[in-house]
Every structure is written in C-alpha cells, then in structure tokens.
C-alpha cells in the first residue's frame, strides 16, 4: 500500500528531496535504518515517483528464506533443476522486469548469493537454476538493511564490490527517537488512517494528554511500534492501560529515557541494588555500608530532584523545604548528578 | 578575453572544496561549489546541465558521484567529468563505467587537476 513519507524533521525532508531528484534514474539504491523505521515506505515512494510506477513492485525478504530457496526465488529454475522442481518457474528478477525489486534485509544474504547478485547488477543478466541460458532483466534494485554494511565488509560478511555497486544512491532514515518532531505528525496521520479503516467499530480517540505522553516515548520499535500502539488504542480504547504497559516495558515514558529520577512511580529498593550483578555479595567490593550509601544516594536524588522541580529550580526555596544549607544543596546537586530539565 | 570557463566542483569534504575553489578561481575559472550530491543536482538542473566541466567526489552520502556522473551523461554526454576518490579502486571503476572522462585518486596535486581540466577542454 502506498503511503507518503510523514515527518517534518530535516532527515525526512531531505529524503523527500532526494526521491524527487533521483526516482526517475533507476540507479541502484540502498535504504538503511533500524527495523520498523519505514524503509519499505521509502522504496514505495521511489517507485511511485519513477516512470516504473504501474509496473511490478516485488519485495523479497532475504532474511526470511534459507539460502537455496532464496536463490530459486530470485532467479527461478528450470524443470528438473533440483528434486521437486517439477515445472519451470520464473524468479523475482524476471517477474520484476521493468519494475522494482526490493531486496529487504540484504545484509543477511549469503556470500555466494551476493556474488550472483553482483553478476546481475554488472551485466543485467542472470541464469535461472538448471539453465545455461542467461536471461536479460531491466529491474531497478532497491536494497534495504538495518545492518551497518561497512562493518559487515570489515567482518568479511559483505562483499565490498557489491556494496559500492548498490550504494549509488544511499538513503539513511534515522530512528524515531532521533527525530522526535516527526512523532506528532505520524500520530495525526495514522489516527486518521485507522479511524477511516475501522469505521464500523466504535472509535475512541486518545486524549491530548495521552498523545503528549506518546510524543515523549522513545519508540525502540520505531514507526511500526507506534502504528501497533495506535491501532490498539483505537480498537481497545484503553489508552491508560496501554501507556502503563509501555511504561512497564521501558520505564521511560515520562521523560528522559536514561535517568531514573523522572520515573514517577515509587522506586522499589531492590531495583536500585543489583544483588545479582555489580552489588552481588560475591563481589569483593560488597559491604552493607556501600549498599546503604547506594540506596540513600538514590532516594536523596529522587527527593531533591522532586523538590527542585516543584520550586522551578529555585535553590533558596528548595533549601528551606529540604531544611539543609545552600552549600549542602549545591554539593548534593553536583555529587548526585542532578541536572535541570532541558529547555526544549 | 573570452568568458571564463564554468566549473562545478562537488565534494562533501569542505577542505578539498575550499582548496580547489581557491586554486581554480585564482587561475581564472568561474567556480561553482556543491557540498553534496543533492545541491549539485539542483545547480545542474538550474543551468540545464550546462557547465564546461564537472569535478566530483565519488563516495558521498545520499547521492554518490557515480550517480551524478550517470545523470549528467544522460542529459549532456559531452560535458567532461573528472571523478576524484580516496576509496580505492571500486568507486573509480564504477565511475569509468558511468563514462567519467578521468578518474583521479586522492591525494592529488592541484597542478595535476588543472592540467587534466586543460586537456579535457581541448
């Protein structure tokens, strides 16, 4: 299904511009980015904006099939090419002729198959399994991967010559957490789309406060996770429960994902101390005194952060509430690593 | 004196862009710069692919020099292109396949690039 690339971030704006300028060239392209980030949407946009639109668009997931099967999927086979090949079958390269072949998860392709792919890209020809005759193909190959192919080359898992041949155009889409300004437009777009889709069901649109919390979440599963959550909210209507689930999964929904101080639920002391890890009694550094300090520091940090937040970081007011000296407060802020909220 | 020779130089390395600009402008060329492939394509489209010569880096994010070379040659096969690369043989051979007129490896001498420009424009 064709979808526009939603977003207002610099990354997304640039991707749309690149697509406008190169979609009609049919040059080999690699789309890189984490899982769930929307690589197929980009491939679809390239295809729709090219003169190949209306011709086949075929997607093959290179990670989903064992090697031999992937080879026969891509290149097809003659009758009798292997046990079970009871009739001639055309491969995706032939089926996608004049259109687009999207090779998803290209980083998972085996080295022998990479060599065959390189041959097609160099010559525009391939031989189906069991055939000696080469077949010509005019297929626009758009590869996608969540791997860092440069690292795979160093590790000997990806062919350098194939890398350069594919990387004529390279589109990198950032994870959603690095372009938070795209979350609100994505939510708007998908709420509208799903409301239309589920129009027979009773739709309960999440409240603004729920949407605000979704915007603050860091979306490790990227756009796909956001889509799933929105669908569930619309169908089940239980936004608070879903938010709590997200919260429990990551402990990160209420703000800064890396600090514990933003977590509003009362801390369980056993979560502060890692008895089976760094604070294990088996460690030579273990002592009850050290554990007490760790726990106390954590609680002090929680309380001081809370009071500073309440007073809008007015330190004089905070010292009166906490009943400590100004100097002690400054020392605690520095020693416990308490930081003011960011301005944006 | 006739009108100056119009060059487009494309490189994502600012230092190279600056030094080529300084050197070639001083030599009397009319130099346009592009720090990436997208800017380069916009500049090329704006003049309907009419520069006297293009110098392009090959390995760049988004739109590579190989892509630029292919696109230029499709619109104006007569326009000479010098491809420059610091990434070994692969990108260079792809550029030749895309009909770049000359491939130079980094680092290169500035005099060398000017001699190549002169030779290609003869």
Secondary structure topology:
The complex is a heterodimer of chains A (344) and B (122).
Chain A: H1 10-22, E1 29-32, H2 39-48, E2 57-61, H3 67-75, E3 76-77, E4 89-90, H4 92-95, E5 100-104, H5 111-123, E6 125-126, E7 135-136, E8 140-145, H6 149-154, H7 160-166, E9 169-172, H8 183-197, H9 208-216, H10 222-236, H11 239-250, H12 269-272, H13 288-310, H14 315-322, H15 326-335
Parallel strand pairs in A: 1-8, 1-9, 2-5, 5-8
Antiparallel strand pairs in A: 3-4, 6-7
Helix pairs in contact in A: 5-7, 8-10
Chain B: E1 6-10, H1 14-26, E2 30-34, H2 37-46, E3 53-57, H3 65-75, E4 81-85, H4 89-97, E5 102-105, H5 110-121
Parallel strand pairs in B: 1-2, 1-3, 3-4, 4-5
Helix pairs in contact in B: 2-3
Keywords:
heterodimer; A: 344 residues; alpha/beta; Rossmann fold; Helicase, Ruva Protein, domain 3; 3 domains; five-stranded parallel sheet; B: 122 residues; 5 helices; 20% strand
Plain-language structure description:
- The complex is a heterodimer of chains A (344) and B (122).
- Chain A is of the alpha/beta class.
- In chain A, strand 6 and strand 7 form a beta hairpin.
- Chain A has three domains: 165 residues, Rossmann fold (3-Layer(aba) Sandwich), CATH 3.40.50; 75 residues, Helicase, Ruva Protein, domain 3 (Orthogonal Bundle), CATH 1.10.8; 67 residues.
- Chain A contains 15 helices and nine strands.
- The longest helix of chain A has 23 residues.
- Chain B has five helices and five strands.
- In chain B, helix 2 runs parallel beside helix 3.
- The two termini of chain B are 17 Å apart.
- The mean pLDDT of chain B is 95.
